[in-house]
Amino acid sequence: MKKRIPLLIGLILVTVLLAGCTEFNEPITSESEGFWNSYIVYPLSWLIIKIAELLGGSYGLSIIVVTILIRLLILPLMIKQTKSSKAMQAIQPEMQKLREKYSSKDQKTQQKLQQETMEMFQKHGVNPMAGCLPLFVQMPILIGFYHAISRTREIANHNFLWFDLGSPDPIYLLPVVAGITTFIQQKMMMAGQDMSANPTMATQMTMMLWLMPIMIVIFAINFPAALSLYWVVGNLFMIVQTYFIKGPDLKKTKEAQPAGGAKK
């Protein structure tokens, strides 16, 4: 049953997101019906419009401000997720020893492995679901903001800097910056993690490190520049956030490397 709970939560989340995606091309207004539109997409769209009015009609600046506000809102969740990830990483050597100790695939051995794994989690105060819950909470907010930008027709009629918000960036600068910042942000999140005990996971993470920025660039080239602006600002915020959360640990790792090399 414990294994099914994350699956059920994931299915519910996917259902909610797909419900929103079916109306992707429909303008969002106060008359839009449904939970997704009424309580997530329209309030975000309304916020973008109101802040643009306060900023002299600049929807570009409004997107930047609202993006930062959204990131600040989910910042506690991101900090919790990062701390949970670090805690799980710290006990990886012990988990590897347990897997080696109970390497047999028979049911009795696997039950013993699960039992001792849970005891180890309790011993170190680690909750394996703690890193997933923030992701489930923040995704509807971020996807809702994505929809709000795409479905707010007022945005398409304004320009910002050198581009029209409703059209793709004509010089492809924003898509390239979105891809580069995505790569940097992912690289910083991976820094300091020891994947030697799990080569398969290391390969998968390396693939995602390159695949995600490429996908972002391809999407951003074809999508309205307003969405590219949202990605760039969000990524820059995440880079700064990751630096302050993981910075001390990364600094210690770099300082320890020369000493380790000298000993060798």
Automatic annotation (TrEMBL):
PROSITE patterns: PROKAR_LIPOPROTEIN (PS51257). Keywords: Cell membrane, Chaperone, Lipoprotein, Membrane, Palmitate, Protein transport, Signal, Transmembrane, Transmembrane helix, Transport. It holds the Pfam family 60KD_IMP. GO terms for molecular function: membrane insertase activity. It is a multi-pass membrane protein. Residues 59-246 form the Membrane insertase YidC/Oxa/ALB C-terminal domain. Its main location: membrane. Coiled coil: none annotated. One of its GO terms (biological process) is protein transport. GO terms for cellular component: plasma membrane. It comes from the Bacteria. The chain crosses the membrane at residues 59-79, 128-149, 161-184, 205-223. Required for the insertion and/or proper folding and/or complex formation of integral membrane proteins into the membrane. Involved in integration of membrane proteins that insert both dependently and independently of the Sec translocase complex, as well as at least some lipoproteins. This is Membrane protein insertase YidC. It comes from Cytobacillus horneckiae.
